[in-house]
Amino acid sequence: MKKYLTLALLLCALLPLSNAQCTPLFLPPIGMTHCQDSVDNTWHEVGSTWRNSRCMDCTCTQCCSAYATPTNFPEDCVSVFDQKACKYIVHKKDDPSVLCPIFGAFCLFLNLKVESY
């Protein structure tokens, strides 16, 4: 079962290489050289990639979630989203310096939920 969890987490890590469950934006018209990120109102060259303030990895044609959400971890732990790193950190409720194992995660961009028992 650990092989499947590892595979799922690997798939989550490969998000920038996949097109699964991404939000399509639009097809830039011929001759267009830049597009605007509707979240941050920043301009980007057609063909470039960037991560916006909502932790979405974007191109001019689509944006994809850049993280997986932990769904199964010990009861004495809590999941906290790190906006700067664009990832969840799971740690002990009474001691944030102690990280906890994650037994399952949901990858929105892959529409994939994986659990390990």
UniProtKB/TrEMBL annotation:
Name of the protein: Beta-microseminoprotein
Organism of provenance: Mastacembelus armatus
Similarity comment: family membership: Belongs to the beta-microseminoprotein family.
Signal sequence coordinates: 1-20
Keywords per UniProt: Disulfide bond, Secreted, Signal
Ranges in a coiled coil: none
Primary site of residence: secreted
InterPro entries: PSP94
GO cellular component, one term: extracellular region
Pfam families registered for this protein in UniProt: PSP94
Membrane-spanning intervals of the chain: none
Localization annotation: Secreted
